[in-house]
Amino acid sequence: MLLGVDDTDSPSGMCTTYLGALLARRLITMHMPVREARLLRLNPNVIYKTRGNAAICLEVDGDTDRVFEIACDMVAGLAHFSHENTNPGVVAVENRPAPDFYWKAVRDFCTTEEAVAVLEAAGARYKGFKNGRGLIGATAAVCSVVPDRTYEYLAYRDSDTFGTPRFVDRESLFDAEASTFPHTWDTVDVENNCVVCVPHTPDPVLFGIRGESPSWVAFARMQVKSEPTGVGQIFVTNQGTDAHLVEGKIGGLNEGYSYRVSGTVCSHSQTGRGGHVSIEIGNGDTVVRCMAYEPTKGFRNVLRALWSGDRVLVTGSYKGGSINLEKLCILTLAPAVTTRPPICPSCGARMTSAGLKKGYKCRKCGAHEKEPQITFHDRAITPGWYEVPPIARRHLAKPLCRGPLAPVQAIKTGRCYAWTRSINSPVSGESIESRMPCAGQAGMPESRNDRRRTCRTDGAGGSIQWRCTVPCRLHLRKNAP
Q1: Which member of 159, 173, 259, 474 lies 3.0 to 4.6 Å from 248 by CB, making a disulfide possible if both were Cys?
Q2: What is the pLDDT of residue 50?
Q3: What are the angstrom distances between the C-alpha of 294 and each of 13, 180, 271, 320, 325?
Q4: What percent of the chain shows pLDDT beyond 90?
């Protein structure tokens, strides 16, 4: 049977995943094995979310009615009912309903009435506390299918330490990232030299390690030094999968949806108050603004390097008339050309326009020229995918370290690896798609501040190149499962 729970937390504490971890242990001690624990992130643009809009689902070998009663009792005892936006929901069902409601909850907006209709049709047991809004997430959780699954190890604090400052050794987190990346990600932000996986909110979570398998997240967790923990739980998740994205077209975007949109850059970027950077991309007569806010740090320089005429594909949520960027793919670069009045060949002065279609005239000596001075500029950017740093990444956004994304598979990530475009092998003629570390740097850098090295490896015939902008320390792997 499947058990779904949502909306038990508040800004002042508690966490639905923590309740799920405790509930799993309670069921196991009562001889009801928990086959799988899932953490499902839903539409990140829902206004009533507390933090990450997560619901949990437990797959249990046990009596549905008994499991439902235990879950309701635990929610009644632990949920933060005093907060007006805490409205828990509990769902128990023998068989998984169709996944349509789950996908709608991830990409769209749902109502409590829609959730109840799904539950009634499935013969589920359910209970909504207060206004019952948590039934939406709980229903989505039991309906969930996760074809692209990731994992997260969540370590929770001992209950006696709730509300006190957390202690997690910073250096051990960087070491865990160095020894497990790209099999784990978003533990720290190497480029911005900060910790990502430790929350700053007053909830029970001590830290969380995300990765591609249970063994990798457990291996990384073993290297983290911290205060004593209460419980730990490995969840199957839809985090880092881009499950929230749908295809969109400029001029047809809906508020609160997350899209993949392609278009042509219309003008140079603008830097606004607070360091936020924007560009406009268009498709014919319609344009849309794309935003990279200050927390995206160096990602803003990608927008600053774009020129009018560049073809791009962007991903992000459409809010307030703008696409808040998560990733950007440069499909093609326009020629970077500027024109200006030429230098007079006679006296060396700068000419001025002689009138429409009349060329240029030197006001100093009277000489004439027909053609302007044309300058071709080298581009500071190359086609491929670019992403916001870990400190600005949303839970559902797929990091580039997880592999190639269509339509361009040449990825510049700011890390010491890259996916190449598919090419034909000069030996077999077969299509090749490869990932490899850059060569030429075998040792650890002297310090983490040494982030400006460049290395390059050429494939057969010099037709493949990998390039990185930070040290290669991340390729020094320890033995791991």
Answers
A1: 259
A2: 84
A3: 28, 29, 10, 17, 12
A4: 78
On the question of pLDDT at 430 being above 70, the answer is no
CA 154/CA 175 separation, integer angstroms: 18
CA-to-CA separations, 413 to 79, 176, 370, 424, in angstroms, rounded: 40, 20, 45, 24
3-state secondary structure of 45: coil
Q: Which residues contact 21 (CB under 8 A, 6 or more apart)?
A: 37, 154, 156, 231, 232, 233
Give the tens place of pLDDT for each residue, 302-360: 999 999 999 999 999 999 999 999 999 999 999 888 889 999 999 999 999 999 989 99
Quickly list DSSP for 454-472.
-EEEE-GGG--EEEESS-G
Contact 250, 261 (CB under 8 A): yes
Which residue is listed with tokens 């510049």? 412
Given a contact cutoff of 8 angstroms between Cβ atoms, the answer to whether 334 and 308 are in contact is yes
Instruction: Please give the Cα distance from 337 to 308 (Å, whole number).
Output: 10
Mean pLDDT in the chain? Answer: 86
Contact 451, 471 (CB under 8 A): yes
Which tens digits make up the pLDDT trace of 36-75? Answer: 999 999 999 999 888 889 999 999 999 999 999 999 999 9
Comparing CA positions, the residue from 403, 471, 478, 387 lying closest to residue 435 is 403
Q: Give the pLDDT score at 426.
A: 34
The C-alpha atoms of residue 444 and residue 431 are separated, in whole angstroms, by 34
Cα-Cα-Cα-Cα torsion 463, 388, 300, 188, nearest 10 degrees, comes to: -100
What's residue 408's pLDDT? 52
Of 292, 269, 305, 472, whose CA–CA distance to 387 is shortest?
Answer: 292
CA torsion 255→259→262→264, rounded to 10°? 40
Decide if 216 contacts 481 (C-beta within 8 A): yes
pLDDT > 70: percent of the chain: 84
State how far the Cα of 394 lies from the Cα of 14, in Å rounded to an integer: 21
